Amino acid sequence: MNASRNKKPGFTLIELLVVMAIIALLLGILLPALNKARSKARQVKSATQLSQIHKGLVTFASDEDGIFPTPGRIARLQYNGNFVPGKGEEDYQANNHANMYSAMIQRNFVSPQILICPAEVNSRCVVDADYNYEEYRPLQGQYWDMNAESQGELAPDGDWSNTGFGANLGNECNVSYATMALVGKRKKDQWRDGMDSSFVVIGTRGPGDNSSGTTYSVGGIDGSTPDISLYEQSQTIGIFGGREEHFGNQCFNDGHIEYNNTFTPDGHKRWEDSNGQYFEDDIYVNEDLTPSSNNPNNVGKDAFICMIYAIEDNSPDDGWDPTGYTAVWD
């Protein structure tokens, strides 16, 4: 008796190799497009977060005479020897970005989550998952979860420590975005709901010098040679630029957002020097250091977004000191 065997068809080795080659080719074509789409999605989400932050600033200002959150106006200096809500002089040394964002979280104008960019590249930038909402003690001069290194001129009586909300990239940092420096005349003119469509107030961090933040990375107004290493070695290039070129979202005072690879956005307000000359405004550089019209209170009018975690002095009596701060960049 002859038994017949049914031979099942199958792939030969050559056919399998051809299929694998085709799959590899398709992946090579599709993956760059998928990565680009993913990067674009992160950029759009970051723009949405900046828009939400700006809406929080405007909402806060609606109850504060049009002024955006200013820590030194919230946690004021003592009045007749006591902390009295709404009374006392402004604590200018409290006007850093750690206190500003912490005050917004405390009063529910923003959430800790939207302060971290979805494309963040610095591992020290993390959501403040344990924000302490119980640190609201007005009669003790404490209005938010404060970090010790960001206290104002007169430290409050609350239980603050280094575990509070931070804006120092050298430690745990709970915010990704660069924000307008609350020093100089820009604070009076632009840190309010003026709806200026030609002045940047928040945005993606840019490259800079940790010591002062006044060093140009792409060329100065005086034609001096830039410090190119600040640009090429900056982690911020990797946020949206893929480690090659800096791209960032820039949110203007009126709330509109532009995505640029330039530090001097088209249509941005120019700034005036002491000789009455106007210059393009590099939003990542503190350029306006010389009073115009011989008026010491006219210094610091240019846009300057950065990350400041401490202010040494910014008293109006000192001519709106534009450099009394400690900034971090990468």
Q: Can you walk me through this structure?
A:
With 330 residues, the chain is α+β, with helices and mostly antiparallel strands. It has one domain (39-328). The model has no long low-confidence stretch (mean pLDDT 85). Helices cover 24% and strands 9% of the residues.
What is the chain-wise order of helices and strands? HHHEHEHHEEEEEE
Number of domains: 1
Please give the order of strands in the largest beta sheet. 4-3-2-1-7-8
Kindly provide the radius of gyration, computed on alpha-carbon positions and rounded to a whole number of angstroms: 25 Å
Broad structural category: alpha+beta
Unreliable residue runs: none
Q: Tally the helices: what do you get?
A: 6
Q: What portion of residues belong to β-strands?
A: 5-15%
Major sheet size, sense and barrel closure: 6 strands, antiparallel
- How much helix is in the residues? 10-25%
Number of strands: 8
Provide the residue-averaged pLDDT: 85
Net shape? globular
Q: Separation of termini?
A: 83 Å
| Assembly status | single chain
Q: What's a quick, concise take on this entry?
A:
This protein is of the alpha+beta class and 330 residues long.
